[in-house]
Amino acid sequence: MNNNELARSKKIMVIRHAEKPTVSEIGVNFEGKLSTESLIVKGWLRAGAIIPFFNPAESILQTSEISVPDVIYACAAETTVESMRSIETVTPLSQRLNLLVNKDFGKKEVKEMISHVMLQSGTILICWKHEDIPLIANQILANLEAPQSWPAERFDIVWIFDLDLSTGQYAFSQLPQNLLPGDQDTYVK
Prior knowledge:
Strand content: 15-25%
Helix content: 25-40%
Shape: globular
Distance between the termini: 30 Å
């Protein structure tokens, strides 16, 4: 049985974690302590901005391509010195939605995570590290329809996978977030 035969998730949306430390900026963790493995201030701004993007207070989404998530996944930090950015990015949204973030899967467990996602119903949001997002897409699509790299400088795209109930296959699209100054209107190629 392949992933598409098991699929019940009507929509899967994948985002990269928000902005990370640079040479000139250090991250700040949940407790306000400096951390090279946490989001920078702009990243925390994006984490806040995705709340109305994925769950608008007026129940009107910016676009019909986006849905309010029923389940949220974030890449787990497997050690105490590993990045918390995926979890930090979706925690404010998960708190607003009163959902627990599934952080049972680490960077090396993409295949296992997608197998778990495929067993969920409703709309899924996955927040992951950019290097592995094409692997996630390949697991969902079972082919190479999605771009095979994610630019290191991009934090502002949503990859969307919609289930076609007539075929049981997912269709791929992408959407710029346009949430913060500097966000781009272009797609990942």
